[in-house]
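Narrative summary of target 7.
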Amino acid sequence: MLWLVGTPIGNLKDLSERAREVLEKSELILCEDTRHSTLLLKHFGIKKRVMSYHKFNEKNRLEEILEKLREGQEIALISNAGMPCLADPGEQLVRRCREEGLLISTVPGPCAALLALVLSGFPTAPFQFVGFLEKREGALIKQLLSLLHYGGTSIAYESPHRIQKTLKKIQSMAPEIPLFIARELTKLFEEGLVGTATSLLEKESIKKPRGEFVLVFAPSPLSKKFETLSAKEHVALLESEFGLSFRDALKLAASLRKIPKKNVQSRA
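Modeled conformation, tokenized:
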């Protein structure tokens, strides 16, 4: 049996009694970072064998873990914070377990993305979670454009050393879109900030960023504008207003309109 166990994202009191029971009965605990998770387990007096399981060794460890599950072992998977598989390792393992008919269950726990969503005051349906934002500027621009085409609320994670750069990019692309930033969720200095990219850049906690950030985008008014455009107008707008090359604009317009690129090209 594979258990996906949610762990605290800041406040240790958020580890549920059921999560403790599952961790205590597991024969093996898979950890994103054994040093980090050992401190958590030690705090609750849980003494179990741990094994590192992260994005750099996930593929190599997969067969070894599956074999243990086939033998009937109880294995728990935890991440450094929050729910496994959400911007954390575990997705490949769960997929393989499903393919082989191996038992899987979850023990719910905190999730920074969902906490930020409900704290934002933005519409909670529909919404999309995109994980960590792209690091490279070109990829980030395309990703932000995709978010601006979305008619619902979007949630992303961002690191402290990139948050200013990301907000400046949003400021240049969509200066009026409402944003919510959550920082240090469930911790002593939890903070929630609402505003445009311009106003958020003036906040002290953005000027001197610390901790991981959750960035929530309100539904973009630009999404309605994009819906009214022809394929040719769509490509032209991506080129003129957002500085994409014709090739990149064509590719992105096709992806966003969910039609083959050749169809966009024939209409453009």
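DSSP finds 13 helices and ten strands in the chain.
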